[in-house]
Amino acid sequence: MSTEKTAVPYKRILLKLSGEALRVQGSRDNISPEIVARIAREIAEAQRKAGLQIAIVVGGGNIWRGAKASVRGMDRPTADYVGMLATVMNALSICSAVQEAGVPCHVMSAIEMKNVAEPYVRNAARDLLRSGQVVVFAAGTGNPFFSTDTAAALRACEVNAEIVMKATSVDGVYSADPKVDPTATRFDTISYEECITRELKVMDQTAFTLCKDNRKPIMVFDMHREGNITRALLGERIGSIISL
Questions:
Q1: End-to-end CA separation in angstroms for the chain
Q2: CA–CA separation, 10 and 145 (whole Å)
C-alpha cells in the first residue's frame, strides 16, 4: 500500500467549528452524535490523506451563550465561564469521535480540569501536532469577555498555524447577509481591509485583528455540506479566503 501523502497548501491548520453546528435544528439534543461523527470522519480522512497537523477550536453556542445570559441578568464573567464549560463538553465529544475514526486526539483546556482534559501548554500542543495528533482546544481563552473566535485566532498564532478555517452555516463571505438580501454577492477572495471598510462581520473585531496583524489568512466555508471539511482541509478552494 502506498504511503505517499496528498500535497496540500497548508500543513498546520486551525479549524474553528461552530457549536450550533453540532445540533440538529429543532431537536432537544444539544449535541447530535451523528453530526459529530460525520465531522470527525471528515477530519480524520483529511489527516490520513495528507498527514496534516490539525488543531480545533469549537464554540459552545449549542449549549450556552454567555452574552445572552448576561443580558438576562446573570453576572457576565460567570455567564462566560459557564459558556467555557460548554465548549469543553463539545470538545470532548469531538475528540472521542475523532479517536473512533482512527486518529489520535487530545483535548487541551484553558481551564484546568485534570480528570477530563490536559491543561493548555503551548509547546506541548505544538509537539502533539508535530506527531500527527489532532488537538482540540477547549474553554476558550480561559478568560471572560472573549469569544471562541478570539480563542481560535489566539491559538492559531500561538501554535503557528498557517491558516484559520472557519466552518459556518454560510458558504463564504458575502457583500451583505444573503438570508436578508437576495442580491448579495459572494467573494472568492477579499482583503482584510475591504472586510473592515465594508463592515463585514466575519469574526468579532478582536479575533479579526489578531489574524490580520499576524498575517493569518481566514477561510470561511459551509460545514453543513457533506465532505466540505475534508475539501477545505486538503486545500480545495471552497468558500471565501480573506488575506492581505
A1: 41
A2: 31
Q: In the structure, how many helices (H) and strands (E) does the chain have? A: 8, 11
What's the mean pLDDT in 73-96? 94
Looking at the DSSP bridge assignments, the partners of residue 221 are 167
Question: Taking each helix axis from N to C terminus, what angle separates 122-130 and 148-158, rounded to the nearest 10 degrees?
Answer: 70
Domain count for the chain: 1
In the chain, what percentage of residues exceed pLDDT 70?
99
Question: Residue 103 and residue 85: Cα distance in Å, rounded?
Answer: 24
In terms of pLDDT, which residue wins out, 12 or 3?
A: 12
Single-letter amino acid code for the residue at 240: S
Read off the CATH number of the domain in which 127 is found. Answer: 3.40.1160.10
- Residue 56 placed within a domain: yes
